[in-house]
Amino acid sequence: MLTPPERGLAELFAEDPMTHPLTYPGRLPPTSGVFSGDRYVPLRAVDGDAWTLGGEEDGVRLDEHLARLGAEPLDRRHRVIAVGSNAAPGQLYRKFVNQRVRPVIPLTLTDVHGITPGVSAHINKYGYLPAAPVTVPGVVSRLFVLWLDDAQLEVLDASEPNYDRRLVPDDIHPVTLVSGVRLRGCHIYVGKHGCLTGADGVPYPLESQRELIARLLDSSAALKKLCGDSPDEFIDKVKDIAVREAAYALFRSEGHALPQPELSLLAKISKSGALN
């Protein structure tokens, strides 16, 4: 029989946004941990930038755990900040389940300065409006960083056709582990479509899909005519690519799509590791 903490971790995989769009961004873990297919094992920070496992492997150091599995150590992995569903184990499971890549991926909680989760000005083919990073001076966001090997990064990149992966400038947007250790060389997925804003031009914050979609429908008679009166109708109708394209056009024509040059012009990393 599972203990209450174990049941809580198992429930992280109960739903995912691809099959339940109104649950976006999915069930996020309460702590740092290691995602490995259908399991999420909690992590505790020790000695600044070292980690130990909880659960059944309580006290085992993360580097030892990765070595036992034949997985790459942390210092040979790419660091990617998750602003949306990439931090949800259920979503990661869907992205990796049919790939020939072993998904042993540490996720560590960090404080990211000057960046917060907003909403991309496009609609995913599954029906939800996904997250996009937005810059807000002075804000500090508690976000997960995924530690990915080369093959895992390639899979994640392929799952993000509406985003470009960019290098986060350490001097402008510092990233710090909850233990206080500064991380350098983190990446982030920047939306190709800009971010959604209200009539005042202020970017929408990431919120529950049901509340977000209801807000959008209430703010645009044209969008309501196109996509229905409720979030459930919206999800059903935008599965049609023609409806999604028409909704994109409305976002732009009604002034709700804001370009993000401060993020889209950040340095891009090639597969060789060189800056472009």
Helix and strand arrangement:
Elements: H1 4-10, E1 33-36, E2 40-46, E3 50-53, H2 62-68, E4 78-82, H3 89-96, E5 104-119, E6 131-148, H4 150-158, E7 163-167, E8 175-177, E9 182-183, E10 186-191, E11 195-196, H5 209-219, H6 221-227, H7 231-237, H8 241-253, E12 257-258, H9 261-264
Parallel strand pairs: 4-10
Antiparallel strand pairs: 1-2, 1-5, 2-3, 4-6, 5-6, 5-8, 7-10, 8-9, 11-12
Estimated structural class: alpha+beta
Mean pLDDT: 91
Span between N and C termini?
52 Å
Give the fraction of residues assigned to helices. Answer: 25-40%
Let me know the number of strands.
12
Q: Strand content of the residues, in percent?
A: 25-35%
Order of helices and strands: HEEEHEHEEHEEEEEHHHHEH
Low-confidence stretches: 270-276
Shape: globular
Number of helices: 9
Main beta-sheet annotation: 10 strands, mixed
Calculate Rg over CA atoms.
19 Å
